[in-house]
Amino acid sequence: MKKYKIAVIQLNLNDVAKNNLEKCLHWVKKAAEKGAEVISLPELYSSHYFCQSEDVDNFALAEPLYSTSFKAFSALAKELGVVIIVPFFEKRMAGIYHNSAYIIDTDGTEAGLYRKMHIPDDPHFYEKFYFTPGDLGFINSPTKKGNIGTLICWDQWYPEAARLTALKGSEVLFYPTAIGWHPQEKEQYGVNQYNAWMNVMKGHAVANGIYVAAANRIGLEKYLPDTAGIEFWGASFIAGPQGEILAQASHDKEEILIAEVDLDLQENVRQNWPFFRDRRIDAFGDITKRAID
């Protein structure tokens, strides 16, 4: 296919798993009705963002592979004939959990499974307590609509992740995301934080001649007493292969963004800006070192 339509869904997900599942199924249907053929939900769609604290009770939110989320969205993908990216909290076994995403093809089968590779540990983003780093590497998922690359949130800051996924043949990089402001810091740092987030992913689009789609959540999630919570900043977007913004969401509304992937345009951009051709792979060996001392 030379062209296909992609969508990211921006939602408030500060609810229980059953309600979030029903909500996301409804919004995926709405996106398909608008013509979307590949649809991504935000990170950890089924619950509030529980990583604001280190609490073993939150492991009860995880689900085994191919259980509730897979069954529901597999059936929906097959019914609608669309590809769905479903980010979820994976229970691999007792004591091993991942921040993962299914890539479900139009016939309801699994086109790919991605496990988040980069795991943050920041104030109220205590993900290292919950998630084992991914061990499946950076993947391209061939689907009946196109070649889909999926990375998750903190991965979005790493050019190496975008590059390796693009080199495997992905036409689009999807970034299911849960990122927001600490309310007490928003006035001083908020603009720069948000702009950095946008700019780094637009840079990945340019450097790789690739489409980039980020699906964030919205809303103030303040489930812990005596804390300010996290104000998720929304602003989901889709960018083209020169970093141009094709669709942009608000900071505070539930929305569906849709844009067209044009593979002829992508090829033209890569022919005129041949960054892949000119890479000095003979000189990049030190990139695998922690530091060059």
Features:
C-N_Hydrolase_sf; six-stranded mixed sheet; N-carbamoylputrescine amidase activity; C-N_Hydrolase; alpha+beta; Nitrilase/N-carbamoyl-D-aminoacid amidohydrolase; 5 helices; 293 residues; acyltransferase activity
Please sum up the structure shown.
The chain is an alpha+beta fold and 293 residues long. It has helices at 17-33, 68-80, 159-167, 186-208, 263-272, and strands spanning 3-10, 38-40, 83-93, 96-104, 110-115, 121-122, 125-126, 140-142, 147-150, 172-176, 180-181, 211-215, 218-221, 230-233, 237-239, 245-248, 255-262. This is Acyltransferase.
Walkthrough of the structure:
The chain has 293 residues and is an alpha+beta fold. It has a single domain, classed as Nitrilase/N-carbamoyl-D-aminoacid amidohydrolase (4-Layer Sandwich), CATH 3.60.110. Helices cover 25% and strands 28% of the residues. The protein contains five helices and 17 strands. The protein has helices at 17-33, 68-80, 159-167, 186-208, 263-272, and strands at 3-10, 38-40, 83-93, 96-104, 110-115, 121-122, 125-126, 140-142, 147-150, 172-176, 180-181, 211-215, 218-221, 230-233, 237-239, 245-248, 255-262. A six-stranded mixed beta sheet has the order 5-4-3-2-1-17. Strands 8-9-10-12-15-16 form a six-stranded mixed beta sheet, covered by helices on one side. The longest helix has 23 residues, at 186-208. It is globular. It starts with a strand and ends in a 21-residue tail after the last helix. The mean pLDDT is 97. Residues 4-263 form the CN hydrolase domain. It comes from Polaribacter glomeratus. Keywords: Acyltransferase, Hydrolase, Transferase.
